[in-house]
Amino acid sequence: MAEAEQVRSKLGKTYPKSEVVAMQPTYIAELRQLSKNKCCAECGARDVSWCTLKSARFVCVNCAQKLRADAANKLKACSGTSYLWFDDEMQLMREANK
């Protein structure tokens, strides 16, 4: 019997890929709610379609590009809609954006 494919979050926890994929519609909807009426944590712009896991804040695409170029943030800036979100990352975003 084959073992289910595992995937790792940017925070280091491992999950079955099928569970991660199944939760994406719920996570995307929740991120949209969490980011509603938020400004970019870096520059104050109104369009916050990205997140930074390093500070658990929402950022605009321009600041996300800058964060991704910075080696210390390289894998910590994530698209709010095209990235596969994991439970541990969502917990971080929920706690920081109550």
Automatic annotation (TrEMBL):
Keyword Repeat: no
PROSITE patterns, per the entry: ARFGAP
Keywords: Metal-binding, Zinc, Zinc-finger
A GO molecular-function annotation: zinc ion binding
Alphabetical list of InterPro entries matching this protein: ARFGAP/RecO, ArfGAP_dom, ArfGAP_dom_sf
Residues annotated as domain Arf-GAP: 25-98
Highest taxon listed in the record's lineage: Eukaryota
Transmembrane segments: none
Name of this protein: Arf-GAP domain-containing protein
